[in-house]
Amino acid sequence: MTKTSTTIGADWGYAPAPESADHFQLKDHYGLFIGGKFVPAVSGKRFKTINPANEKVIAEVADGGEKDVDKAVKAARTAFDKVWRKMSGRERGKYLYRIARIIQERARELAVVESMDGGKPIRESRDVDIPLAAAHFFYHAGWADKLGYAFPGKSVSPIGVAGQIIPWNFPLLMVAWKVAPALACGNTVVLKPAETTPLTALLFAEICQEAGLPEGVFNLVTGAGATGAALVNHPGLDKVAFTGSTEVGKAIQRSLAGRGTKLTLELGGKAAHIIFEDATIDQAVEGIINGIYFNQGHVCCAGSRLLVQESVEEEVVTKLKARMESLIVGDPLDKNTDIGAINSKAQCDRIRDYLKIGEEEGAELFQTQCSVPEKGYWIRPSFFTKVAQSHRIVQEEIFGPVLAIQTFRTLNEALEKANNTPYGLSGGVWTDKGAKIFKVTRGIRAGVIWANTFNKFDPTSPFGGYKESGYGREGGRHGLRPYVELS
Ligand code: NAI
Ligand code: MG
User: Fold this and answer.
1) For ligand 1, mutation pick of 245, 267, 393 (most atoms within 8 Å of CB)
2) Residue-wise burial string across 206-238, b where 16 or more C-beta atoms lie within 10 A, e elsewhere
3) Same domain assignment for residues 52 and 166
4) Which residues pair with 406 in a beta bridge?
5) 174: Cβ below 6 Å to ligand 1?
6) Smallest-distance ligand from the CA of 198
7) Exposure winner among 15, 144, 286, 457, fewest CB in 10 A?
8) 435 and 471: one domain?
9) Is residue 52 part of a domain?
10) Is 66 a catalytic residue?
């Protein structure tokens, strides 16, 4: 082609816009945080945490065992008895406010580390995870001296020492969901973060030091599943809170049976996202994208099953494909990236297995054409059509950027399909009609149902599930209940 003065270059792609990682310094290795100090594991063992976008080691982290868990639980017990339970709610609240403010001050560092350690796009860690983590501390700081108003007519006291185990999909946000209500209500904590994403929890421990939180109120024991099991099995806990897979949730329930330790579980999901023919289709398509491709689909409340009314199926699927082709998959630290790296090789393999299972079951796979980096763990945005309710890709949580698309004709058929899984965590509905919204939100058995939006979170709003999605609520006044004794 001859170049003329009116020819504009053919490449309309985005230029790279990487967030820099030179405004903070991570350590080569991190200890456990017990009794207000960083200490090595008794065994001296460590494990590596890697960046799933390039498979490079970021840091080494102490691998906590039974003895470390025991030290941490004892430190939490001492802090509970001697300091934290005796402190007024007003004083406790001051520490929580301080933590919230330091999270805000260190937001940029926390966002970059979150994206490096876990693979999520910087846009999400910067605009969702970290601000919401701070918001959870602000919100609960406000409750610390007002618990009497949360439970009128009751006398409120803390439970004691909480053992908390969190997953890798929202590492710092899950720290906040777990730790903020526990501390606000006067409990002390031993937390175990996920083995692939321990770094922001470790930075959170530094923040607790910086805030002058009394030693032993918050303790952190890093490690894998065995460390989590050691924590659950420690007889010194008054309460266990777990977010993760349904399988491990059930195992925890079994090991706590008969012990009188309180338990809340936030497990998997397989949410139905229902699009009626009277919905604003362009907005609904954005909702579908946000519902399943946000955070690579590593979201327990993801809208992983699309139920679309038959009359608009073609329009929705055509528009969805076009929109999906515009999604940028790649470097999590690039500000243009829509979809980052899959959190770990294990999770990437699991998702690939489901892609194979879906095809073997007879469903039709669509994947976008985008390029992905050579190193690291990646899955292109994907969906299946021609799926049956009995297919494993409809019944089981995939926890990746993979949507299953089904159709329905009547509202009742949509509800029946929506409820026909072992899970009950979330749901979504798009329609122009308020009456349909009420009918659907009452008809789906799930903890949270979004109408004409999806994946909206707020610390004032309780979150949790039914059926195999677990029990207990986090956030809002309901979320305080698992952390208090009432009399
Ligand atoms: P997982 O349930 O094994 O991991 C979650 C946390 O539990 C981690 O901190 C882990 O170290 C800990 N853990 C593992 N085994 C334990 C045990 N026996 N006792 C105590 N703690 C233990 O989940 P995983 O293997 O990483 O992911 C598998 C699937 O689980 C995913 O594909 C997804 O479907 C689901 N999942 C759901 C999550 C949710 O938010 N609901 C979060 C993470 C995973
Ligand atoms: Mg990592």
Assistant:
1) 245
2) ebbeebebbbbbbbbbbbeeebbbbbbebebbb
3) yes
4) 307
5) no
6) 2
7) 15
8) no
9) yes
10) no
Same domain? For 202 and 281 the reply is: no
DSSP letters spanning 99-126:
HHHHHHHTHHHHHHHHHHHH---HHHII
How many other CB atoms are found less than 10 A from the CB of residue 319? 17
Domains in the chain, number: 2
225 Cβ closer than 6 Å to some ligand 1 atom: yes
Q: Is 244 in the pocket of ligand 1 (CB under 6 A)?
A: yes
Question: Does 266 qualify as catalytic in the annotation?
Answer: yes
Looking from the CA of residue 249, the nearest atom of ligand 1 is 2
Q: Is residue 10 part of a domain?
A: no
Nearest to 60 by CA among 199, 201, 243, 210: 199
User: pTM for the complete prediction?
Assistant: 0.97
From the CB of 251, is ligand 1 less than 6 Å away?
A: yes
Token couple for 304: 């992983």
Helical axes 171-184 vs 89-105, angle rounded to 10°: 160
CATH number of the domain enclosing 208? 3.40.605.10
* Ligand lying nearest the CA atom of residue 115: 2
Range of the domain at 303: 272-451
> How many Å lie between the centroid of ligand 1 and the Cα of residue 227?
12
175 vs 242: CA distance, rounded Å: 11
Residue 421's CATH number: 3.40.309.10
d(CA 410, CA 310): 9
Q: Which ligand places an atom closest to the C-alpha of 233?
A: 1
From first to last of its 487 residues, what are the pLDDT tens digits of the chain?
445 556 677 777 889 999 999 999 999 999 999 999 999 999 999 999 999 999 999 999 999 999 999 999 999 999 999 999 999 999 999 999 999 999 999 999 999 999 999 999 999 999 999 999 999 999 999 999 999 999 999 999 999 999 999 999 999 999 999 999 999 999 999 999 999 999 999 999 999 999 999 999 999 999 999 999 999 999 999 999 999 999 999 999 999 999 999 999 999 999 999 999 999 999 999 999 999 999 999 999 999 999 999 999 999 999 999 999 999 999 999 999 999 999 999 999 999 999 999 999 999 999 999 999 999 999 999 999 999 999 999 999 999 999 999 999 999 999 999 999 999 999 999 999 999 999 999 999 999 999 999 999 999 999 999 999 999 999 999 999 999 999 9
Indicate whether residue 249 lines ligand 1 (CB < 6 A).
Answer: no
